[in-house]
Structures are given as structure tokens and as C-alpha cells.
């Protein structure tokens, strides 16, 4: 006995069911991908924040090292250094016995401070980019001033 098999693969109902199944599989795959993309995006933002913080620490450390060198060499010692200021510096201050940066990190701020055993004075801007810093030993104080 021979059975005749009717080919139903071309019927509109089966085509739409197959298309719907493909759409379901694709949408589930995309939904599984969303958390991975969001996590990557947040990690990248956090990495950028960490890099800016480390750049500010490096800038403060460079200026502190140069100020100590100039101070211990004594009056009339001078030095010019190039320092890169990162983005998000709210305040840059040199006074008393400290060099102080205040940085914005997300919705809060953090402080970066370098302390000295001697008095420092000067004027720094908070603009990001490369800056030329002039350091001069004066009697009992080191002047730290931004040239450009």
C-alpha cells in the first residue's frame, strides 16, 4: 500500500509559524545580549574615570617632585616642566604647604593633595590639556605658576 504524502511546507500557516519562531529566537538572543552590552558600557565609563584620576595623581606628583627639587637647590633655582591635566578638574590650588586638586567623579568629587615641608604659592588653572609649569625657589617658599 502506498501512502501519498501531501507537501504542506508551502502553506501560508506553516511559513508564518516558522517566521514567528525565528523572530522569537532572535529576540531572546538580543535580550541575552543587552546585559553584556550595558556591563561593557559601564566598565568603559569607569575605566575613563580611573584614567583621569590617575592622570591627576601623576600631574600632582610631577609638580611636587619638581617643587621639592627646586626648594632643596635653593634660591635662585628655577625649573619648567610640562604637565598634562585631565578632564573633570574642578579646582587646582597651590597655597600654604599643599598642592590641591578637586576632581568631579560621577555625582561626587574627590581630592588629590600633595603635602610639603615648606611653603608653596602659585596659580594654576583647572583647564584640561598640556600645561607648562614654572617653578621658582624664593626665600622660604616655592612659587608654582602656570605659564601656558
Q: Can you put this structure into words, describing what you see?
A:
It is a single chain. With 148 residues, the protein is α+β, with helices and mostly antiparallel strands. The chain has one domain (42-146). The chain is built from 1 helix and 7 strands, in the order αβββββββ. It has one helix at residues 12-73; strands at residues 78-85, 89-95, 98-105, 108-115, 119-123, 129-138, 141-146. The strands form 2 sheets. The chain has a 4-stranded mixed sheet with strand order 1-6-7-5, covered by helices on one side. A hairpin with a 2-residue loop joins strand 6 and strand 7. The longest helix has 62 residues, at 12-73. The relative contact order is 0.14.
Secondary-structure blueprint of this entry?
Layout: H1 12-73, E1 78-85, E2 89-95, E3 98-105, E4 108-115, E5 119-123, E6 129-138, E7 141-146
Parallel strand pairs: 5-7
Antiparallel strand pairs: 1-6, 2-3, 3-4, 6-7
Amino acid at each position: 500500500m502506498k501512502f501519498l504524502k501531501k507537501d504542506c511546507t508551502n502553506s501560508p500557516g506553516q511559513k508564518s509559524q516558522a517566521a514567528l519562531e525565528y523572530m522569537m529566537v532572535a529576540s531572546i538572543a538580543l535580550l541575552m545580549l543587552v546585559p553584556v552590552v550595558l556591563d561593557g558600557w559601564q566598565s568603559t565609563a569607569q575605566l575613563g574615570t580611573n584614567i583621569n584620576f590617575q592622570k591627576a595623581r601623576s600631574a600632582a606628583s610631577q609638580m611636587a617632585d619638581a617643587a621639592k627639587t627646586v626648594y632643596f637647590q635653593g634660591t635662585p633655582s628655577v625649573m619648567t616642566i610640562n604637565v598634562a591635566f585631565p578632564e573633570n578638574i574642578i579646582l587646582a590650588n597651590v597655597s600654604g604647604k599643599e598642592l590641591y586638586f578637586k576632581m568631579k567623579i560621577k555625582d561626587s568629587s574627590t581630592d588629590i593633595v600633595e603635602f610639603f615641608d615648606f611653603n608653596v604659592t602659585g596659580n594654576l588653572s583647572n583647564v584640561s590639556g598640556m600645561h607648562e609649569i614654572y617653578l621658582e625657589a624664593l626665600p622660604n617658599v616655592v612659587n608654582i605658576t602656570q605659564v601656558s
